Please model this.
Amino acid sequence: MNIEETYLEAEADIKNNAYVEAYRKYESILYEEPNYAPAHNSMGWLLKNQFDDMEKAENHFLAAMKANPLYPHPYFHYAVLLTDMERYKELEKHLDKCQKIATIEKSWVHARRGILNELQMQFEEAIKNYESAIRITLSDEKIKDYKADIERCKMKLELKQEN
Model:
């Protein structure tokens, strides 16, 4: 089996909503190559988003990070999983780890911290993190998004202060 080719076929299956086919292909890849980080990451995404199996998804994200610590995608997906599960202390530790990984865009880390702060109604801290994200990103599109995040937090801060 050509692992890379099968992986690309599985990714195409996901784009075509053929989730069962993608699942089977990822399984076959991991049977042949148990430490293939992209397949673990994609399997985790599939399990989380299409099958609502957070425990198995988490195991695959962790396996992907262990198999290839510089492969950035499972770090992103694991952060979303922790956020969705409201496991904020673990998310803080995970973001600390992400800050030290060369292949992870640091503006993303600050933005995720902003989301974490915002969910905890710490709007001033969220604004600071979104501002930090703006300072270090090179993407005009992300700057627009982070500015919108700041404006949303300012509005929430005003509501909080009024009540």
User: Anything to note?
Assistant: The chain is about 80% helix and 0% strand. The domain at 1-86 is CATH 1.25.40.10 (Serine Threonine Protein Phosphatase 5, Tetratricopeptide repeat). The first helix runs from residue 3 to 15. The chain has two domains: 1-86, 105-163.
